[in-house]
């Protein structure tokens, strides 16, 4: 019997992306992360990914906590569910408003993001890991190619667990209280509570948790606004498409 394979399903670039994503996921799971999955267009994919990761790769291996987010407002659901250190995965095309919004807010929630899809790609930096099928065929989501990607991701994540040395987090370059490299950068934050009085402080959620932040530089802010926080002060608003990773 002759077996033929289509090597274009997973080319060298996508293989590299899968390996990097799997290592990142393994480190996060090792540290206690939960994987949250949304797929507004193709809800069965969200369920499939969640079941895949909860299911041990072989008997005796660990189940990895994973939950499908399938409420009508997946961004609101992700906001409530996601904790710092978690993983947020989307299986969707690049033009899905809810996915775009969730991906841009995830850094403020402290979540690492992955985006699986096909067709036109999201902009660079739209997610921490973009695993993309470069095809204009609208039937790709129904052909099994997405399933192949997240099956490989699941298996490669478990492969990483077989090498405990890989699970150590990368050395933090900013070991001192004040980092020369990043001291001028702002942290992405999402407004939780507006100031109770003019020029007061707002409660803002960042990857490090919730903190009271001076928003007087910006004036009025509203719940769920995205801002850049530096030295306890919101120094800028973040509009659509302005989140850089």
TrEMBL record:
Recorded superkingdom: Bacteria
SUPFAM superfamilies for this protein: HupF/HypC-like, SIS domain
Gene Ontology annotations of biological process type: carbohydrate derivative metabolic process
Species of provenance: Mycolicibacterium agri
Lineage: Bacteria, Bacillati, Actinomycetota, Actinomycetes, Mycobacteriales
InterPro entries the UniProt entry points to: SIS_dom_sf
Name of protein: Hydrogenase assembly protein HupF
Entry GO MF terms: carbohydrate derivative binding
């Amino acid at each position: 019997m002759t077996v033929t394979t289509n090597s274009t399903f997973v080319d060298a670039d996508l293989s590299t992306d899968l390996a990097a994503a799997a290592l990142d996921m393994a480190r996060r799971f090792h540290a206690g992360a939960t994987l949250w999955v949304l797929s507004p267009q193709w809800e069965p994919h969200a369920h499939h990914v969640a079941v895949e990761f909860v299911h041990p790769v072989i008997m005796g291996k660990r189940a990895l906590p994973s939950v499908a987010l399938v409420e009508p407002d997946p961004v609101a659901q992700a906001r409530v569910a996601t904790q710092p250190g978690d993983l947020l995965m989307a299986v969707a095309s690049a033009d899905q408003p809810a996915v775009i919004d969730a991906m841009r807010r995830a850094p403020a929630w402290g979540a690492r993001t992955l985006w699986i899809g096909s067709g036109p790609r999201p902009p660079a930096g739209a997610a921490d890991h973009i695993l993309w099928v470069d095809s204009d065929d609208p039937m790709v989501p129904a052909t099994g190619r997405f399933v192949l990607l997240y099956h490989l991701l699941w298996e490669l994540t478990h492969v990483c667990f077989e090498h405990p040395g890989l699970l150590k987090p990368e050395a933090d370059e900013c070991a001192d209280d004040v980092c020369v490299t990043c001291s001028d950068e702002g942290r992405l934050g999402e407004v939780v509570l507006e100031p109770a009085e003019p020029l007061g402080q707002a409660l803002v959620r960042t990857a490090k948790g919730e903190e009271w932040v001076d928003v007087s530089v910006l004036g009025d802010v509203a719940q769920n606004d995205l801002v850049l926080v530096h030295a306890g002060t919101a120094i800028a608003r973040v509009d659509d498409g302005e989140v850089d990773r």
